[in-house]
Amino acid sequence: MCALKTFKLGGVHPPENKHSADRPIEVFPIPKQVVIPVNQNLGAPSSPLIKKGDMVTAGQLIAKGEAFISSNVHSSVSGKVLKIDNMMDQTGYKRMAVVINVEGDEWDGSIDKSDDLKEQITLSREEIIKKIHEMGIVGLGGAAFPSHVKLMIPEGKTAEYLLINGVECEPYLTADHRLMLEKGKQILIGAKILMKGLGVDKAIIGIENNKPDAIKHITELAKEFDDIKVQALKVKYPQGGEKQLIKAAVKREVPSGKLPIEVGCVVNNVGTAFAVYEAVQKNKPLIERVVTVTGKTVKEPSNFLVRIGTPLNELIEKSGGDKEATGKVVSGGPMMGKALNSVDVPVVKGTSGVLLFKEDESVRVEMKHCIRCGRCIQVCPMGLEPVLLTQLSERGRWEEAEQEMVMDCIECGSCHYTCPSGRPLLDFLRLGKAKVGQLIRNRGKK
Amino acid sequence: MNMLTISGSPHVHDDSTVKKLMYGVVIAMIPAMLVSFYFFGLGAVKVTLIAVISCLFFEWFIQKYILKVPVTINDGSALITGILLAFNVPSNLPVWIIIIGAFVSIAIAKMSFGGLGKNPFNPALVGRVFLLISFPVQMTSWPVAVPLFGEALTDAITGPTTLGFVKESLKSGMTVAEAMAEAPSYMQEFLGFQGGSLGEVSAIALIIGGLYMLFRKIITWHIPVAYIGSVVIFTGILWFVNPQQYLDPVFHLITGGMLLGIFFMATDLVTSPINTRGMLIFGAGAGILTIIIRIWGAYPEGVSFAILIMNAFVPLINRGIKPKRFGEKIVNNK
Q1: From chain B, which residues contact A within 8 Å (Cβ)?
Q2: Which residues of B touch A413 (CB under 8 A)?
Q3: Whether residue B330 has pLDDT greater than 70
Q4: Residue B4 to residue A388, Cβ atoms within 8 A
Q5: Which of A203, A406, B275, B286 could lock B323 by a disulfide, CB 3.0 to 4.6 Å apart?
Q6: Which domains can be identified in chain A, with CATH numbers?
C-alpha cells in the first residue's frame, strides 16, 4: 500500500459518527406495496411500459429510458400494478410513479438469483455497455447519473484510468463500507467489467483511511488483479467528490466546467461497481440497493439491502427510529443530503442513507454578521470565495458571479459547515448556480 | 411524526462561533497582559480596566440608544479592542485620554461603519494613532519597567522605548554598537524588561499568544510569516550592507510594537484580506512599510501606521488577488 494521499485545496473534518459501521448488511423484508418513480436518475424521465392491473415480476422492465441521458426502470417486486399516478417522492414534488401491490416474490426467469461468484467476463465491450444500459444501472453514490453514458467516451477523448470511489466521506453513511467488506470480490469483478467497457487497463480503488478493514480486505482481494490498485486516502471531506478523488489518486485537476474524461479518468462508486457485476454477470437489473439508516434518534443504526420503492418510513421503524424525538429526516449524508418533508416516500436508486436528526440538531445555528475571517475560502475544495459569491447572489449580480466561477461549486457544504457566523453560504451559492445556469442556457438559445 | 424541519444542506455545523473566536484571542492576550502587570504594576492594571470598561460602555451605549440594535457587547470583540488599546499605550496615561481613545476606537472606527465585521480599519489602532497625534507628549513618556519584586534598570521614572532610544542615538551620529551599549540586552528585551506600551514589551509573551492562536486555528500562518519574513529580509539586507548604521533583524523584531502588531493587529480577521494569497501580500506590505517608517520616518515606531495603511488596501487586495482555483493549472493529459 502506498502512502496516504489526499486533495490539496480546502476541506473540513466533520465528526464521522459512523455508528452503523459494524452492522452487517441485512436483507430488508419486502414491503406490502412499493412506489417506483419512473425518473430516479439524473436526466430525462422514462416512459412506463405497463398499465394498471398488469401483473409484474421482480426484475421486469416497467419504464424505458429513451433519451440519451436516461435510464431504464424495473419492478423491484412481483405483484399487481395498482396504479400509475403522480406520487410524492424525495424531491417533495408529486411525480409519475408506478405503485405495485406485492404478491409473493417471483423473479424474472432470466435473472441468476444465486450467490455463486461468476468471474469470467464473457461479454464484449459493446455488449457490456448495452447490458448496463438495459439493466438500468445509475451511479449509486448519490447523483444517479446513468452509468452507460459514462462508458461512452466522447470523440477525441481517451480514458486512461477507472477510479472506483470507496471513499464514503459523508459522515454517518456506511453502505459502501459494508459493501466493500461483504461483496469485495464482486466489486472487483465489477471494476474489471467497467475497465473492459471503458477500454482502460488501469483501475484505482480509493478508500478513506477511516476504513482500515475495508482497505485491508480489498487490497488482499485485489492481489490477483495486477491492474487494480487500492489507494488509501487521508480522511478529509469532501475526499469522495469526483474531482477531489481524481486529484488525490492521479494528481490531475479536472478543468473548470469539464468532465473527468478531460483528464482521462472515469469515476464510479463501489456500489455502482457491485450493481454492474450483478447486471453483467447475473443479468440482474438495479432493483435493490444498500441503504444506511442512522442518526442519534435511531436505536439500531443499520445497513439494509432494500428493494427500490420501499417506503422510508418502514426502514425507520425497523431500525427503531424514535419519530417523536426526530426533527429532521435527511436522504443521504449530513453534508450533502436532502431534508425530506415526509417519510412516506420511496427509496430510489440514489438513496444511500436515511439520517435522522434530533429536534435540537435540526435547526441551523443563529446567523450573525460576516466577520470576513475567510474560513469559507480556506475550506473551499474548488478554490472559490463563498463569501464573495454570497454577496453577489444577495445583490443579483449574476454576471459577476459567473466570472467568479460560481458554476464550479460542487455544493459540498464545507463553507456553510465552517462559518463561525452561521451564514447560509451554500443556499446563496445554489441560488447563484441556478441563476447563472439560466443565463448560460439563454445565451445558448440566441 | 412531528413536523419535519426542511433546510438546504449541510445539516451539520462545526460549532464554531464568532464568540469562541473572539474569546480565543482574549485568552491569547493573557500572557502579555500578565507581563504588563508584572513590569508596570498597578498603572497597567488601571489602564487595562479603564480601556476595557470604556470600550464596552461605548459599544453598549451606541447599540442601545443610537443604533437601537441588539446589544452584542458579550461577543468579545469590544473586549479585544479594549485590551489592544491598553496594550498600545503607556501605563501612566491619564484616565481621560484613555477614555477618548476608547471612544475613537469604538464610536468612530467601529460603530460608524456598522459594527463588527464592517469596519475597514483596526479599531484599537485607529484609537492609538488618534491619541499619538493628539497627545504626543503623554503618549510617548513611558514609565521604565520595574519588576514586581525587583529593581529597575535605571533610576529614571520615565524614559523612551528601546527602539526610540536607539533611533535617537543613531540620529545623533552614534554607531549601532555605541547605541546598543546603553540599551537593554536582547534577552531582557525578549522577556519584556524594557520601557514601552503595556502589551508590546515582552516578545516571548506575544509569541506564546500567537502560537496559541495558530494552534487553535483562530489565525493562519500567512500574515505573521509574510510580515516577519519581509521584515527580516528587508532589515537583513540593510544590516548586511552597513551594520554600523542599520540595526539587525532580531532587534527590529523584539523591540517596539512589532510582535504585538504582527500577531494581534495585522491578523485581525475583519480588517485583513479574506484569502490566503491576499494575506501574504498584506503581511509583506505591512512589514516593508513598518521598516520604511522606522528607518526613514519621523516616528520611531511604524507598526501602527503600516497596518492601517495596509488595512486601507484590503478591498483592493480582495478584488485583485484571487485564491488558487481548482483546475486553474493547465493539465497535460498524457
Answers
A1: 1-2, 4-18, 20-21, 115-118, 220, 269-270, 273-276, 279, 318, 322-331, 333
A2: 9-10
A3: no
A4: no
A5: B275
A6: 125-282 (3.40.50.11540), 375-445 (no CATH)
Task: Return d(Cα A107, Cα A114) in angstroms, integer.
Answer: 12
Pick among A244, A258, A343, A373 to test the B interface (most B CBs inside 10 A): A373
Contact A294, A329 (CB under 8 A): no
Are residues B265 and B84 in contact, defined by beta-carbon separation less than 8 angstroms?
Answer: yes
From B13, B116, B324, residue closest to A9, measured CB to CB: B324
Residue with cell 516616528: B299
pLDDT for res B331 = 46
pLDDT tens by residue, A326-336? 999 999 999 99
Strands annotated E in A71-200: 73-74, 79-88, 94-102, 161-166
Q: Give the number of other CB atoms < 10 A from CB of residue A358.
A: 14
Q: How many CB atoms lie within 10 A of CB B298?
A: 5
Of chain A, the end-to-end C-alpha distance in Å amounts to 53
Identify all chain A residues contacting B270, using CB atoms and an 8 Å cutoff.
Answer: 371-373
Burial, A344: exposed, middle or buried (Cβ in 10 Å; 0-12, 13-18, 19+)? middle
C-alpha–C-alpha distance, residues B133 and B298, integer Å: 12
Q: Say what percent of chain B tops pLDDT 90.
A: 71
How big is the A-B interface in CB pairs under 8 Å? Answer: 181
Q: How far apart are CA A304 and CA A319, in angstroms?
A: 9
Chain A positions touching B279 (Cβ under 8 A) are 374
Report the distance separating Cα A398 and Cα A428, nearest Å: 12
Burial class (CB in 10 A: 0-12, 13-18, 19+), A4: middle
Q: B241 falls in which pLDDT band (50, 70, 90)?
A: very high
**CB spacing of A253 vs B273 below 8 angstroms:** no
The closest CB to that of B10, out of A9, A384, A413, belongs to A413
Q: Taking CB atoms and an 8 Å cutoff, what residues of chain B touch A422?
A: 13, 17
Dist. CA A322–CA A78, nearest whole Å: 31
List chain B residues with CB under 8 Å of A340: 4, 6
Other Cβ atoms less than 10 A from the Cβ of B328: the count is 15
Q: Encode pLDDT of B118-146 as tens digits.
A: 999 999 999 999 999 999 989 988 888 77
Please list every residue in chain A whose beta carbon sits closer than 8 Å to the beta carbon of residue B21: 371, 373, 420
**ipTM metric:** 0.89
Best residue of B9, B75, B277, B332 to probe chain A, by most A CBs closer than 10 Å: B9
Give the domain ranges of chain B.
18-139, 160-320
Return the HEC string of chain B.
CCCCCCCCCCCCCCCCCHHHHHHHHHHHHHHHHHHHHHHHHHHHHHHHHHHHHHHHHHHHHHHHHHCCCCCCHHHCHHHHHHHHHHHCCCCCCCHHHHHHHHHHHHHHHHHHHCCCCCCCCCHHHHHHHHHHHHCHHHHCCEECCCCCCCCCCCCCCEECCHHHHHHHHHHCCCCHHHHHHHCCCHHHHHHCCCCCCCCCCCHHHHHHHHHHHHHCCCCCCHHHHHHHHHHHHHHHHHHHHCCCCCCCHHHHHHCCCHHHHHHHHCCCCCCCCCCHHHHHHHHHHHHHHHHHHHHHCCCCCCHHHHHHHHHHHHHHHHHHCCCCCCCCCCCCCC
Q: Which residue, among B82, B66, B79, B85, has the nearest Cα to B131 in the 3D structure?
A: B85
